[in-house]
Amino acid sequence: MQYHYAGKGTPVNVEYADMAKGENGMSIIETVIAGVGSYLPENVVTNQDLAKKIDTSDEWIRSRSGIGERHFAADGETSSDLAAKAAWNALDHAGLKPRDIGLIIVATVTPDKTFPATAVYVQEKLGVPPGIAFDLSAACAGFLYAVNIAHDFIRTGQVEHALVIGAEKLSCFLDWEDRATCVLFGDGAGAVVLSGEDSQTAREPRGILATYLSSDGRLAKHLYADGGPSSTGTVGLVRMNGKEVFRNAVEQISNAVFEVTERAKVSRHEIDWFVPHQANIRIIQSCAKKLELDEDKVVVTIDKHANTSSASIPLALDAGIKDGRVKRGELLVFAALGGGLAWGSTLVRY
Ligand code: UT7
């Protein structure tokens, strides 16, 4: 059974068959990006700052990863603080109020507490009325997993407006003895408001066109935190086999983009913007090359943000929109790979 909206916030059941595009003159619900927002903590830490503390250099970090600086949250500033600020900006951009939101998903590997979900603290901070709120753990691919789930809630008529947030305070589990990982990560949050839109009354066709997700637990050993409530009783620190993750990232991010363009029957050459997870500029460039996408179609923020895991795609999207490059009606593709290993892609007409 699926639904369509009779009016704002009033989902009405209709038979699934009736929902098929064009059939009986019925419309389907598209999931559109109604608003985008982000937040970066105030404290900027440059490569030079790190070089004063550990055995590294600006030259090594820039040439191996593309990172120039990162933001670190203040002591006492939590992932839900970052998430709530990004969410406010996304709500403003969408022209919506907290009372309009029926679903909040926070993708994070750095929750405020082991439980309850960071999403309920965001709900409280924003003043969102009782509704669905939960966290999702899929590391750097978490934002894409969350978008996919929110898309299902929307197109089945369960909620009209959802907040999907990637929020990370990765600085809380960096190993300052391991220079191969501690220089790569930063803190921040990015958010989108996803809304259901009747395809027939929409001014122009837009929304999520295709999604693809996958995970392979056999590769979990290559990227993880070596702690957890049921194992060590500690949070743990980041451990990464950089070369294995790099190799898998180039292969699976490219494959994931091929997959969504095929599913949507869209040519890769129609893509206006590739908005990838920002883990390493060399990964991004290798994927763009495999996908035959010009560099000027790629949104890159790694130099300023470093790797912010689940926050990196919405942070990059927001940067691209706010500086005027990414425009309404353009075809965007998001793609990421990270701990799990887990990866995925989303194709969306913005
Ligand atoms: O978000 C999740 C996804 N994450 C990723 O996709 C990350 C994937 N991996 C990578 O981005 C890269 O593998 C790294 C940036 C982590 C490392 O780059 P690499 O080209 O694979 O370098 P490497 O690990 O092979 O290290 C090369 C050298 C080593 O020295 P020797 O053994 O050749 O003498 C390291 O000890 O660089 C040394 N090194 C450093 N030197 C200065 C490692 N870290 C540093 C450092 N500063 N911070």
Task: Describe this protein with a few key phrases.
single chain; 350 residues; alpha+beta; Peroxisomal Thiolase, Chain A, domain 1; 4-stranded mixed beta sheet; 11 helices; globular; binds oxa(dethia)-CoA
Can I get a quick summary?
Helices cover 31% and strands 27% of the residues. The chain is α+β, with helices and mostly antiparallel strands and 350 residues long.
How are the SSEs placed, and which strands pair?
Blueprint: E1 2-7, E2 10-14, H1 16-19, E3 29-39, E4 43-46, H2 47-51, H3 58-65, E5 69-72, H4 79-94, E6 103-107, H5 118-126, E7 132-136, H6 142-155, E8 161-169, H7 179-182, E9 187-198, E10 207-215, E11 223-225, E12 238-240, H8 242-264, E13 273-276, H9 281-290, H10 302-305, H11 312-322, E14 331-338, E15 342-349
Parallel strand pairs: 6-7, 6-8, 13-14
Antiparallel strand pairs: 1-2, 3-9, 4-5, 8-9, 10-15, 11-12, 14-15
Bound molecules: oxa(dethia)-CoA.
Oxa(dethia)-CoA binds at residues 56, 60-61, 64-65, 140, 179-180, 183, 223, 242-243, 245-246, 249, 279-280, 283, 307, 338.
